[in-house]
Amino acid sequence: MSVLEDDGYVVTPVPAAESGVAWLRAGVARFSEGADHVRRRAVVARVLSTVDLDALRRPGEPVAVLAEALGLPRSVAGDVAVVAGCYQPHVAVTREADEAVARLVAACGGAWDEGTANLIGVLVQASAATRALIAGVEPPVPVTRRVAPDGSVVEVDLAGAWFGAGRHACPGREHAMALAEGSRVFHRLHDDFLVLPNAWDFASAAALVRAGFAAVGTTSLGVAVAHGLPDAAGVARAETVALARRLVRLPVPVTVDVEAGFGGDVRSLAAELWELGVAGVNVEDGRGEGLADPGSHAAVVRAFKEAAPGLFVNARVDTHWLSVDRESTVTRALAYADAGADGVFVPGLADERGIAALVAALDVPLNVLPVLPTATLRDLGVRRVSTGSLLFRAALAETVRTADAVRSGAPLPTDLPTYPETTALTT
Question: Does a cis peptide bond (omega within 30 degrees of 0) precede residue 139?
Fold first, then answer.
């Protein structure tokens, strides 16, 4: 019999407490034995039984996705992460963690009781473990602790039992796996061939979804210029995040063009977008009329992946777009892939031989603009074609043409969406 299945080995006992992390530890099934454990584990089972597993199979920070499925705000994920850092009895508790517990209790209805404690416990125990599962860490939880009959503390290696065993086996295995699946939804679209249209507002994105596209991206040019701002100047972060917040309502994965990361702390940007439910980002190495040092941009890519392991990070190489240092294209692409990029985007690359060579050099999907027929790009091994700013510029051109037709008395277009069809995009 393994330690985990031996009733003589118990979880670390914790004292009763009135508030904070100590109260949480004292009220959850995780640190209980006997009748308390049986009763509290039943509470956890009831909580998990209310969750539709399909609701977990969507992009986003796992605790945020789980919280939403439980009827809680996605924003609790930040407090859950703080508490998770102090959850284990052998770890010192911080004032920030105690304050986070109080906010979580309030978010859960305000009752300091076993039901609330175990609801919070479900989220806390999903925090680091599920993020590690999504990041490919094996096992996601490396060890657990038990107190032996002689009072000594034993660390149990979980390499052969990722979700534990015995009476304390994780009751949320299916939920964790569903969350991990959700983090891969957008990634899997690149297994074959993805045509990714780029929107600039909610209406354009919703129309593209209604047209049957499997995912939608944003165009930094469209988002910036639609707000009267220059593109690639790092000044449209607020507008980009605000749009992302609206687009995640759509029933398809959404990836966001974040220019070069908008400067500042890219980790906080990555975490914010992932918590919202964004599936991916596109981050470019262009810096004005030149290029970033490849090592510096690789660090940006790495920061995105470390802060949000489930994001599909598409690393854009601007050598062809800016006609600068084109001979470094492959070197840059490989450096970004080594830093954790899930895909590489080379706008402006239009040569069949160059595309084929880059596909052969990379172990991650290559993304280009529709510079050649789609069928040709697919045959060359390209796995993602983005429209970039094309649709936005086409919309501007058609807007002016239609207005000019009204002014000149020329025939007006007749194949437009109706008013009811347009308003229906918001539902």
Answer: yes
